[in-house]
Amino acid sequence: MIWLYELCYFAGGAVLTNALPHLLRGLSGQPFQSPFASPPGVGLSSALVNVLWGFANLAGAYFLLGWVGSFEFKSIDMLALAAGGLAIGIFSARHFGQFHDSNLVRPS
Questions:
Q1: pTM above 0.90, yes or no
Q2: What is the pLDDT of residues 76-106, one digit of tens each?
Q3: Is 105 inside a domain boundary?
Q4: Three-state SS for 53?
């Protein structure tokens, strides 16, 4: 069942990458979208909520990478982590870019 470990490392990479924007915006005192906003993922949450959500994501990544199997940096495990981070990064850029990119050309 090694493929289950790789799936956990993929999810760990996604959760770790998701922690970054929440922590960066929260630590700089700026609001940002979170699952706790209204509507979820679209409305803005306070900086404090984003810091807490960012740290919750870090805790999830720690569990998925540190306690499931035996994660090794010099193996396919790292590729699974990177693929998860890239996947959530591309999704987030496309989804949240529509809210934050003022140079985005919108169809009329």
A1: no
A2: 889 999 999 999 999 988 888 777 665 555 5
A3: no
A4: helix
